[in-house]
Give the backbone structure.
Amino acid sequence: MAGQVQAPNTCSTTPTCRENGETTQWGKVAIRSLSCKRGTGMKVISRTADPTELSIPHRSRLYRLKPIGAKTPLVESMTGYVGRLAEAYDVPVQVLFRNELGPLLARPQLYTANHAASFLRSTGHAINGKDHLAHDTILALDTLLGGYDLHLHTLTMCAWADAISSHDLVRAIRAWCPVCYQTWLEAGQTLYEPLLWAVTVVTVCPVHNQYLKTFSTS
């Protein structure tokens, strides 16, 4: 009968079939090509996939990179997360902003490479804060990541919006704890930038009781 496939005689009654490297059971999915093996013999059979049988998972625009330190005092910062996301694609951060985030943020400053780089140097730190840019960045990334709940708001100070002032809330320059980095490096862990390091009033690492180092990104 057209559209149906009979199992080869050389296969068991419920053969294990492989499609594109994934093992499935016969008849469970729409299959373009199957390989059924018994002993050293192999037969290949094909049929046209029925679109009604296909179950295509939702695809995100960008890779769903998992934030580091979620639900801990050393949760990753939004600037650090975006930096790691750009690194995963092997592109500069300004390119990720210009090509992906820029159109969703609707900010003309991000529409060219030079403007994007200048915008990030002068204003990029604000995505760690709790104002409009932080909120808009969360929404843009949520769209690009397919709506998957990564708790991106915890990478900013938005959770504290009703409790603290936004004035001088986050640093415009980077800060880091050398001992944390050395410890993570020796342990083979991913190096990242905790949100706590971006908060202006935090000057000492709470883990190692060491003053944070800083330098200007301009």
About this structure: The mean pLDDT is 78. Strands lie at 16-19, 22-25, 33-38, 41-46, 174-176, 213-215. Helices lie at 78-88, 93-105, 113-123, 132-144, 178-186.
